[in-house]
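re: that complex we talked abt at group meeting.

here r the seqs, copy pasted straight from the sheet so there may be weird spacing, ignore it
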Amino acid sequence: MAKGILRAKAKAKGGNTVVKIMAKHDMETGNRKDKSGNKIPANYIQTLSVAYNGKTVMESNMGTAISKNPYLSFTFVGGAKGDELQMTWTEITGATATETAKIK
Amino acid sequence: MKIIKSLLMGASLAMVASAASVSYAATSGNTLATVDPEADRLALQSYFQKRFPKVQVEDYVNGIYALDAPSREQWQDIEEFPPYEFDIEEGEELFNEAFANGKSYADCFANGGIGIRQNFPRWDEAQGQVVTLELAINQCREANNEKALGWKKGKIAKISAYMAFTSRDNVFDVQIPNDDAKAAYLDGKQSFYTRRGQLNMSCANCHVAGANILIRADLPGPTLGQVTHFPVFRSKWGELGTLQRRYGGCQKNVRGEPQKTQGDKFRNLEFFQTYMSNGLVVNGPGSRK
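got the structure back, here u go
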C-alpha cells in the first residue's frame, strides 16, 4: 500500500476517541518566492475531513494560514478499538485522497 | 520587573564567579597543565545536583524540560507527534542513497553508520583536529566526489537526525587520548566561559548560572546534557537544525559576530560540551521551543 501523507494516531477511551493527525505537506501559500524571484505556485490542503462508520466526525477548512506539516487533534464521541477511520483530504489543485487509520 | 530582576541576578551571579577567575562549575584550571576534564565534568554534575536536588542526572538530556514543569507539559504534548518524525524518514532515505560512484555513507562509518552517534565528536589524530558528525558526513561525501552539504540545516540535518535516531540510548563517551586533544578540550572550555558580543555574555552566563532563570520570555536550558538531543527541531526555526546552527544563533543573540560553522572554535566547543555530557545518552533528534 502506498504511503499516504497522513500519519494518524487514534485512541478509544471511555466512550470517546481522541484522534491526532499530522499531514506531510508543504502548505505552499503561493506568496513565497524562489531564488530567481519567481513566486512558488500555491499548493495547500483545503479540506481535511474524518469519517467514522460513514458519518463525518470532523471537518476542517484550511487555508494559507495553516503552516507546513499541519497537526490536528480532536475528540469525537463513539469509536471502538479496532474500528477504522476514513480521512479524506483535498488540495486546491484538486488532488484528493482518502487514507485509513485504525483506532487503538 | 520580575524578569529584569531575574536577568540581573543571573548576570551578577556570573560576575561574582568570574571575579574569582575560576569557572564556578568547572573547578579545574585554565591552562593545559592544570585543566582536568573529568574534574570539570563531575563538578558540573555536582553543581546542577545541588541546585536542583530532585532532578536525576540522566534526565538532563531533556534540557529545560527536566527542570521546568509547565514547559515539560507542553513539550510532552508536542512529543506525542514529534515534529521531526518526517525528517527522520527523509534522513533514512538520504542516508541509504548511494553516491554516483556506487558507494554510500555506510562505507565511511563504523557499523555501517548505524548506532554510532555517541562516538562524535572525536579527536582524530591523523587529521589533528576534532571531527564532528556533520564534518564526518561531508568528509565522506567529498572523499566520494560528492559536493559537501550546507552545515546548518536541510539534508545534513536530516541525515544527522537519522543517525542520531539509530543511536538513541547509547551512552556518550568522548575520549581525550593525548595532550593535543586536551588542548582542543581546553579551547572549547575557554570559549564556553568567555564573554562575547555587545551584551557581553558567555555561554555559561545563560546555561550555567542562568539555567531555568527567565531571560525575557525564555528559560535557558542547563548545559549538562545540552548537546545530546541534536539535531533539533526548533519551533522558532519551524524545521530541523544542527548544533552549530544554534551556536551561531546564540552568538548573534548576544549581539556578537558569529564564528565560523564547523571551524576550529565551534568544533572544539562541541568537543568540550559533549565531554561534559559523558555518561548521558543520545536522545536525538529532539524538539525544543
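couple things i noticed - Chain B touches chain A through six residues (CB under 8 Å). The two ends of chain B are 24 Å apart (CA to CA).
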